[in-house]
Amino acid sequence: MTISRTELEKIAALAQLQLSDEEVDGLTRDCQAILDYFQVVSEAGIADGAVDGSAERSAPLREDRIDCDPLEEKLEDLAPDWREGYFILPRLPALDADA
Hints:
The chain is mostly helical. The chain has a domain at 5-44: Orthogonal Bundle (Histone, subunit A), CATH 1.10.20. Helices cover 42% and strands 4% of the residues. It contains 4 helices and 2 strands. β1 and β2 (86-87) form a beta hairpin. The radius of gyration is 30 Å and the shape is elongated. The relative contact order is 0.07.
């Protein structure tokens, strides 16, 4: 597959890019190099990910379960101030400033 200068200019217009002639030429070369590399990969037969039979080997799966992660300490021990099941924090100074 090849990409032409006009195709790249259309793509740049769709992306709302303003490119100079030098930038268009450079991007055309870069995009063509990427497409050429994709061609090499597809010819090597590794595009599907199975190169050396690695798809046959899989990692063991863990059991899928939902449960709580218990804390080693109680929440009230973690809080600087705790009352009636709530964290008590100092008032923000911005709330006391004149608006």
